[in-house]
Amino acid sequence: MPTTTPILSQSVNLSTTLTPNSDSVTNTNGSTITETVTTTVTGTGTTTTGTGDSTTATGTTTVTGTDTTTTGTGSTTTGTDTTTTGNGTTTTTGTDTTTTGTGSTTTGTDTTTTGTGTTTTTGTDTTTTGTGSTTTGTDTTTTGTGTTTTTGTDTTTTGTGSTTTGTDTTTTGTGTTTTTGTDTTTTGTGSTTTGTDTTTTGTGTTTTTGTDTTTTGTGTTTTGTDTTTTGTGTTTVTDTTITGAGDTTTGTDTTTTGTGTTTTTGTDTTTTGTDTTTTGTATTTTGTATTTTGTATTTTSTVTTTTDTDTTLSTSSTTTFNESFNGTASTVIGKSDNITVSVTGFGVITNINKSLVIFIVCLFYLL
């Protein structure tokens, strides 16, 4: 039996601190969704331009008529507010001479006629029919000089009628006709202007030399308003009776208002065919230009961003217990150190007194 030695009574405090694994959970699951959908639709413009159809009709002019000689032309003047100014000079030499003067018809209002007529007749049995010119229209100015010289016996001249119909038309021309011979028909120059705002300027000269010739001169008829006519006077001589021989001046600065004078000499009848002028109408048709432009449409979708919330979870607990005991041992323990045991794998840190460890070892030894 071994000898026992009393063991120092020692009070040991065993302090054990258990710190469970501190759980720290950080969940960072951020999801970001960015959607960019851009749809752009641009309509295509459609342009349609109609093609213009242009149709221009060709004018057709038909002139039908026969000029007939009339001996013994009457003179008719009918109108209101007419001013006639002119100088007439007539010289007649010969026997058995018949001269039928110029027939002049003026119908209208506010008409001014100014002109000088000179007629010279030499020979026997000569018939001269003066100049007739007809102008019908409004605001028309006709300026012309008519000169008729007849030498010979029984001469017939039939003047030509010219018809101009239109608006705002200007006609300028000179007509000259010369006929020499026996039994000759000469068509002189006549001018008829019908229209509005028309100006006709021309000079007509007719010279006839021969036997058995009848000359129908150019007369002037003006019908309308605000018209100026320059024309020829009238002289009548029958059977060696000379009327107005010498210098005769009639109508100097004379105003005749609304006076109608009609003189008819002879039996012959003059029929002048009708001039017909037909002018086609120009028609222009232009198509319609149509422009259609498409609509541009832009659609942009919505951008959505979703981010998860970060969550941190921490858990900690501490357990402390104290344990004291009294015992004996065969060895005196004189040291009192602390031993720190760290078990990191389980997250447990234990502080154990060194003396207690020695004591426990001795205790097991004794047992």
UniProtKB/TrEMBL annotation:
GO terms for molecular function: biotin binding. Residues 36-204 have a biased composition (Low complexity). InterPro entries: Avidin/str. Residues 15-35 have a biased composition (Polar residues). Residues 15-204, 290-313 are annotated as: Disordered. This is Uncharacterized protein. It comes from Adineta ricciae (Rotifer).
